[in-house]
Structures are given as C-alpha cells and as structure tokens.
Amino acid sequence: VKPVKVAPSLLAADFTRLGEEVQEVERAGADLLHFDVMDGVFVPNLSFGPVVCQAVRRVSALPLDVHLMVTKPEVLIEPFAKAGAHRLSVHVEAVTHLHRVLAQIREAGMVPGVALNPLTPLASLDEVWPFVGFILLMTVNPGFGGQSLIPETVGKLGRLARIREQVAPHVELVVDGGVTVDNAPALRQAGADVLVAGTAVFAEADRQRAISLLKGGS
Ligand code: DX5
Ligand code: ZN
C-alpha cells in the first residue's frame, strides 16, 4: 500500500485561533489543507469563502484544497484562484456544464477535481477522467463535520480505485467524511491517496500523533 496524504478539514478547527490551528497541523505533518465551502443551498449549512482562504494562505505554505459544496461554482473559481487555492473541486450533482467548469478551473491555474456524493453512481465519472487531477469521494452526506462514515462507501472506493487503475492511474482519489484512525486502514487498502479528516485531527490534542496514525504510522 502506497503512502497516503492527510488533508485536515478546517471546518473542525477552532475559528477563534484559526492561524495557530493551521500552523499546528502543518508542523504536525499535514500534506494539504482542506477547505469546505458551503452555500446553504447545495448543502443545508454555510461555512466560509475566499476571504478566509486568503487569510489562511498568509499563514501556511501548504497547498489549499478547496471543496465547493455550492450550486454555482463558476462564480467562485476566479475569487478562489486569487485567494491562493491550489486545487478546486466541484460536485458533479451541482454542475450542468462540467467540461466548461473544469476547463475554467485549469485556466485559472488550479488543479480541477470532481466530487461525488455517497450514492452518486461511479458511472457519472465515465467522461470526466481526462479533465481532472483528482476525484473526491464523499463518504458522508456533505454539509457537516463529525458524521459517521457510511460503510458501503468503502466498497465504492475500491471499485473506483480499480476503474482509476484502468483508465487514469495519475488521477488522485480523495476520501472525505467520517475518516477516523479506525477506518483509515480500510480506506488506504481500498485505494485512497488522500484522507480528508476534520474531527479525527482537530478534536485530538496531539495532532502529530493523529496524522501519523491516519497515515498508518505509530
Ligand atoms: C463535509 C465536509 C468534510 C468534513 C469532514 O461536508 O466535506 O470535509 O468537514 O469532517 P469530518 O472528518 O469531521 O467528517
Ligand atoms: Zn470536504
């Protein structure tokens, strides 16, 4: 099993000390920072936008992985590029003109990704592979941190990894939602390249240990 990257989700950070939280997980071995953007329409919750991304950018050198849970991602591509985002994912369920949106993300200088809700069929990715750098597989219903991983999504990840191996081995598989130290081995085994983890990192006092355990260390 190849080494996995860990992307702490800032949704679970202490917002009163966001700068310190970001620097702490960077020192603790985080590979990316996951940034959950919600519009209150695509998901029943609101979070934060480009202004916060720009602030985080100033205190960390880690690549920012922006996950757009919004119905109109096209209006946010340029603002997030300017705010210093490195990767940007949009939901296949939200976008009508996916080819155009993915091209706009690339033109804006970011790595485009497509996110899939837990029960969205893998077949919706059939035409997507040539246009993305990563696929983000939701293992909970998007909208909130701290939920339990839906067990059936582990099998889905395994099937996705087998398809990926055939059609686009360079495309990264990111798993998002309910990731814990307990289910991380199964997710790594199934083919995850990146584990997004909010609660499993930020609710732990020892972030270094949490990240190391997620990666399969001690
Ligand atoms: C859910 C978000 C996730 C979430 C993960 O809508 O996309 O990134 O913050 O948080 P945990 O790891 O606590 O499930
Ligand atoms: Zn997310």
From TrEMBL:
Catalysed reactions, as listed in the record: D-ribulose 5-phosphate = D-xylulose 5-phosphate
Protein's organism: Thermoanaerobaculum aquaticum
Protein known as: Ribulose-phosphate 3-epimerase
Binding site for a divalent metal cation: H34, D36, H67, D176
The organism's taxonomic lineage, starting at the top: Bacteria, Pseudomonadati, Acidobacteriota, Thermoanaerobaculia, Thermoanaerobaculales
Gene3D superfamilies with a match to the protein in the record: Aldolase class I
Pathway: Carbohydrate degradation
GO cellular component assignments: cytoplasm
Domain of life of the native organism: Bacteria
